[in-house]
Amino acid sequence: MKTRHQASKSKSHLHGLIKSLSKSEKRYFKIYLKRNAQGENSASEKLFDAIDQQESYDEKKLKGKFKQESFARNFSVAKNRLTENILRALHFYHHQKSKENTFNTLLNEIEILYSKSLKGLCIKKYRQANELALFLNYPIKILRLEKWRNKLEISSLSDEDNYQEALNTLRLESELNDLLKDLRKKQLEKDSLSLAVLKLHSILEENLLHRRVLKKTHRGLSHLYYLQQNFTMSLDHAQKALKVLNDNEIEEQIHLISNIIYLAVKVKQFDKAKTKLFELRMLQKDFGHLPPLKPKFLEAIANLDLFIKTSEKRIQDALEAIPPIAKELAYYNGEIDHKKRASFYLNFAQIYFLKSEFKSALKWSNELINYKALELHSDLYLHGLLFNLILHSELGNHAYNSHRLKFVEQTFEKAGSIGRFEEQFFQYIDKEEINFEQWQRDFLKLPQNEREKSIVLNFEFEKWLEAKVKKVDLIYLI
Questions:
Q1: What pLDDT sits at residue 258?
Q2: What are phi and psi of 15, to 5 degrees?
Q3: Do 280 and 261 contact (CB within 8 A), yes or no?
Q4: Which one in 125, 255, 308, 344 has a CA-CA gap of 20 to 30 Å to 315?
Q5: How many CA atoms does the CB half-sphere of 194 hold within 13 Å?
Q6: How far apart, in whole angstroms, are the C-alpha atoms of residue 333 and residue 55?
Q7: Average pLDDT over residues 67-82
Q8: Using one digit for the tens of pLDDT, what is the confidence trace for 126-173?
Q9: Mean pLDDT, the chain, whole residue set
Q10: How open is the CA angle 422-424-427, to the nearest 5 degrees?
Q11: By C-alpha distance, which of 316, 317, 338 is closest to 329?
């Protein structure tokens, strides 16, 4: 007769399950644990690795290995939890593989239908594939669909003897893409913005513009007017771009509605901002279950909710919203865009700063400047460095600022971002006793374009100087 130990050593369903997994399934399981990180999942990963290393199952050795771990006190619960996690991961893994196979089948069907000139059915299959590509969130699949979108739109126009119109659409779109590329690379000087606005308005005067050209033109104009700080016109074109979107362009809807909310707040249209935020929440209710969209909704809704609260001076409400948002950020971990995550850190710091809670502000400011995924020469990182020095100044950490300043100056020099504002900032922030009245006078002597550089996202440096001179909290001057 076998002893209890021999039985546990010779047979384990969990051991058999782990050993049956392929390399890709094991890799996906680790990814699944990280994406769905809960406290107990680190225990699941440790137990998984230990069992995977055993040729034959030996529970006694496992308990000895983990005797210092809290989960060892209830080993059967830990094993059951690991089994459940593996089965859930396998479900999602094979569900996604199934979706990928469906996508490839649809792509093959599109090619066959196109070759047979069955364009109506071809477009129907294209739409199914497009929706699936959005679900999978694989850029390579979206790119594979892009050529079919262009082919199908040209062919449908040529059927109506509008081939020249199709070529005109592609020509305009090419011009638009070049212009928008320059905008993204910041290659347009300020005096060139007006010419770019005129160019885009001339495109709008063309007859029978394709929906895609209209969308890109209005988005381009919204961005150009924003750069000119004409927020009213920027808002108008963002709303026009939203109107021409298709219902299945969910990510673009999120992006444009977010822009509209931000711009509505800038022009003090708070009712519009709140209405659009509600619209965004309704969109989340309909599409938030799709894995690639979950973090995108968090990025948009949480940031904008904080922005509205701080803009309406509801600082306490904003402070209370920070802990649950921080918890969500930790939950989604690597799924949040690194720039969006960094902007959350800066926003958190600035909200605490408005309440003069400088230690809490410093905690989040440090999260930003120590965030390894952020490029050292990005605007967000550079702004974060300046704001960090301001916080240390408020806390009386002059020795830290003197020590840190050399690194900050070198970072700005490497980024080619030292102007008259930065030079002045470094000169004053290095003083143990800062003469804020003199700093304010010198700041106001700077050219307008240099003073504009002092606006660090939602933090207005000029207002901070005024608050220091008047010896009042910043919140009373915003």
A1: 94
A2: -60, -45
A3: yes
A4: 255
A5: 1
A6: 34
A7: 83
A8: 878 877 776 665 556 666 777 777 777 645 444 444 444 444 555 565
A9: 80
A10: 110
A11: 338
Q: How far apart are CA 24 and CA 130, in angstroms?
A: 26
What is the token pair recorded at 140?
A: 């390579």
Please answer whether residues 430 and 402 qualify as being in contact, where contact means their C-beta atoms are separated by less than 8 angstroms: yes
- In DSSP terms, 455 is beta-bridged to 460
**Residue showing tokens 């802990």:** 323
Q: Long-range contacts made by residues 466-472, C-beta under 8 angstroms, separation at least 24?
A: 466/440, 468/434, 468/436, 469/436, 469/437, 469/440
One-letter amino acid of 222: S
Which pLDDT belongs to residue 318?
93
Give the C-alpha separation, 129 to 110, whole Å: 9
Amino acid letter for position 303: N
Report pLDDT digits (tens) over 175-234.
Answer: 666 666 665 555 455 556 676 677 777 767 665 556 777 787 888 888 888 878 889 999
**What CA–CA distance (Å, rounded) separates 100 from 132?**
8
Structure tokens at 276: 């659009």
Q: Is 460 helix (H, G, I), strand (E, B) or coil?
A: strand
Contact predicate 119/156, CB 8 Å: yes
| Dist CA 328 CA 336 (whole Å) | 10
> How many CA atoms lie within 13 Å of 407's alpha carbon, on the beta-carbon side?
11
